[in-house]
Amino acid sequence: MKKHIFFTLWNIEKLERVLHEYEQNGQRLESVSFNYQFRFEKSAEKEMQYFLSYKSFRGAGMGNCDNALLSKHKANPVKSKMCYYCLYRTKETEENLKLLCDVRADYIKRILFEKLLTSAILAVLFAVFVFASLYFGSNSGGLWFLILTVGICLLVFVYYLFGYLKQRAKCKKIEKNERR
Hints:
56% of the residues lie in helices and 18% in strands. The strands form 2 sheets. A 4-stranded mixed sheet has the order 1-3-2-6, covered by helices on one side. Strands 4-7-5 form a 3-stranded antiparallel sheet. A hairpin with a 3-residue loop joins strand 2 (27-33) and strand 3 (37-42). It is α+β, with helices and mostly antiparallel strands. It has helices at 12-24, 63-71, 98-136, 140-179; strands at residues 2-4, 27-33, 37-42, 49-54, 76-77, 79-81, 85-90.
């Protein structure tokens, strides 16, 4: 059975809970493709946890978490194709994965901040082109394209700003709970 499940970076835990519930109901996740297309197969009902590890195109990403999942927690990677993350399935309890989840929360916060800054820089850069086109007098077709590009960059900026603020609040809550 193929199923499309949309999720955001700041709601990864929600996806993991959904996959856990599918596993409890006898639907095992077999593979993921194109980030949101999940393929399930019937299986015996099991108590399994899923862990999503984000993959950054610029570095090791969550390599240490991946290594810990594979060695210490004996997790099995779920087959994935064309995804910006890896999913792991393990028999560990949620409590045993808490440290990895906390590390991931900080990492996702940093990734969201980077994407937020990138979209802001692009919006400013294209806005400069818009003002230069207005000042020097440019054809209206190119100007509308630039205005549309600035608008898209601003929408992406707002999207990542919202995600960053949600993730930052989540990280503060984690830090507050650790102090107790």
